[in-house]
Model the fold of this input.
Amino acid sequence: MSARFPVEVRVRTGRDYRDAFADSRRVSTRHFSLHLRLRDGGFCRLGMAVSRKVSPDAVVRNRIKRQVRESFRLRYAEFPPGDCIVVARSGAGALDKAALRKDLALLWDRLIALPPSSPTGTIPRRDAAAGLASATPAPTSPSDTPFLSAPEGAPAPRPTASPGE
Done:
């Protein structure tokens, strides 16, 4: 089994990060902050921001990122579809592995406990140039990637409604 973090589950572009920070819901713990930008359908993608304020030592920052990726992998099926940006705060660098996992578990629990967002409206947006309703295609679930295969005993991914329902 490959331990790679596939492209499909990563927030990669600066624009995606900016959009997530500008239009997001937030949950926090003492050492982490999470910004969630909901999307229609699909799955949850992960982005991370671990700055030098957390630790000037790259080894420590990379250890934090590995722990975030692994805890995300174990619980991603429980998350709503969207872009999750995890921001490490300055005290996170001093934590050991067990404390990091505990704080991340609390962060994921708070994410799952978020109430559903209110609907933005019933009238579809119009594309200004063509005068047509714009529909963003829902991303397909990359369930065939080894990274995203749910661990035994993990809950199944949330069902999403198809566009015709």
